[in-house]
């Protein structure tokens, strides 16, 4: 497990209500707990003592290439952005229709897609009332924290 994987786990914990995460795999033990809004990470290789890996008070910046910059917006447009790092899915299953398309009307609780992160499927809600005017990601595309997913004309 590399530091980028640990950063992704910490970001997922921050974006969710998880307060504890533990993983054991082939001589590696990872336990992350969150207290008072701060995530603390510890890693242990089987025979070695615990050591501190990272403290994060906010979501880590992407460790890979920078996120594509958002298109210019006027006052009537807003972006639905990715709340986490993962893989974007536009439908619940390969045979299901897409959650939204260009022209779809959305409300604050409309599910617009799924992001898979650490084998967990996370429904992404619009949080905006309006109409989808542009889809900025493709099905099964890897996405970064804060990456624009949809452009919405607000109602």
Key structural traits:
4-stranded antiparallel beta sheet, 8% helix, mainly beta, single chain, 155 residues, OB fold (Dihydrolipoamide Acetyltransferase, E2P), 2 domains
Alpha plus pi helix count: 1
Write the CATH homologous superfamily of the largest domain. Answer: RNA polymerase II/Efflux pump adaptor protein, barrel-sandwich hybrid domain
Beta-strand portion reads: 35-45%
**Are there runs of 5+ residues with pLDDT below 50, and where?**
36-67
Main beta-sheet annotation: 4 strands, antiparallel
Approximately how much helix is present in the residues? under 10%
| Overall form | elongated
- Count of distinct structural domains: 2
Provide the gyration radius in Å.
18 Å
End-to-end separation in angstroms reads 45 Å
User: How many runs of DSSP E, i.e. beta strands?
Assistant: 12
Write down the secondary-structure element order. Answer: HEEEEEEEEEEEE
How would you characterize the overall build of this protein?
- By secondary structure, the protein is mainly beta.
- The chain folds into 2 domains: 3-56, no CATH class; 77-154, RNA polymerase II/Efflux pump adaptor protein, barrel-sandwich hybrid domain (OB fold (Dihydrolipoamide Acetyltransferase, E2P), Beta Barrel).
- It has one helix at residues 3-15, and strands at residues 20-25, 28-35, 38-45, 51-56, 77-81, 86-89, 105-106, 111-117, 120-125, 130-135, 142-143, 148-154.
- The protein is 8% helix and 43% strand.
- The protein contains 1 helix and 12 strands, in the order αββββββββββββ.
- A 4-stranded antiparallel beta sheet has the order 1-2-3-4, covered by helices on one side. Strands 5-12-10-7 form a 4-stranded antiparallel beta sheet, with no helix packed on it. A 4-stranded antiparallel beta sheet has the order 9-8-6-11, with no helix packed on it.
- Strand 3 (38-45) and strand 4 (51-56) form a beta hairpin.
- It is elongated and about 50 Å long.
């Amino acid at each position: 497990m590399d530091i980028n994987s640990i950063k992704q786990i910490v970001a997922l914990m921050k974006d969710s209500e998880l307060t504890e995460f533990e993983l054991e795999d082939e001589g590696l033990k990872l336990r992350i707990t969150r207290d008072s809004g701060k995530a603390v990470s510890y890693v242990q290789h089987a025979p070695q003592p615990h050591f501190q890996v990272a403290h994060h008070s906010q979501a880590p910046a992407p460790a890979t290439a920078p996120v594509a910059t958002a298109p210019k917006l006027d006052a009537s447009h807003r972006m639905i952005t990715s709340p986490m790092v993962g893989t974007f899915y536009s439908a619940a299953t390969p045979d299901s229709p897409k959650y939204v398309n260009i022209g779809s009307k959305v409300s604050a609780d409309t599910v617009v897609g799924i992001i898979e992160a650490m084998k967990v499927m996370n429904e992404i809600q619009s949080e905006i009332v309006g109409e989808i005017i542009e889809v900025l990601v493709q099905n099964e595309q890897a996405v970064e924290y804060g990456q624009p997913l949809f452009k919405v004309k607000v109602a």
